[in-house]
Write a structure and sequence with these properties.
Blueprint (H helix, E strand, L loop, with lengths): L10 E13 L4 E14 L11 E4 L2 E2 L5 H4 L11 E2 L11 E4 L1 H5 L3 E3 L6 H5 L1 H11 L4
Antiparallel strand pairs: 1-2, 1-6, 2-3, 3-7, 4-5
Length: 136
């Protein structure tokens, strides 16, 4: 695949670790849990730098519903971008994190002392933790 070029507000991300999930109903193997580093940033990106390590949170909510206001974007009925589901996602060495995802905080910093293998589990663990917490 050709190397994507990040546009304004977008981040070019290099997947270094991915988790896999098989969806039995479709037989599709999807990435679920991504850890890696920023390869490049588009114009207008100020707080994210090449070489920084992140886990990728895969759901971008609408930012307007009760679920989004209560930090439960995974339940948002209008979620419009689920990164790595139904697209190349982390199966491509380099992929673009859309502006909306970068602005919504979908890149979660991996601390310097944390191994990337552990960083890979940040997003799936968050799904489990959110599933245990009742809605307010």
């Amino acid at each position: 695949m050709p190397t994507p070029v990040p546009g304004r507000g977008e981040v070019l991300f290099r997947a270094l670790r991915i988790g896999l999930r098989l969806r039995p109903e479709t037989g599709m193997l999807e990435s679920h849990g991504i850890a890696g580093e920023v390869a490049a940033v588009g114009s207008g990106v100020e707080d994210i730098f090449p070489g920084a390590r992140y886990a990728v949170q895969s759901v971008v909510g609408c930012g307007e519903c009760d679920y989004c206001f209560s930090a439960r974007e995974n339940l948002c009925p209008k979620a419009y971008h689920i990164h790595g589901f139904g697209e190349a996602g982390a199966f491509a060495e380099l992929f673009v994190v859309p502006t909306a995802a970068a602005q919504a905080g979908c890149l979660v910093p991996i601390p310097d002392g944390m191994d990337l293998d552990a960083g890979l589990l940040v997003e799936p663990l968050a799904f489990c933790m959110n599933g245990l917490n009742p809605l307010p």
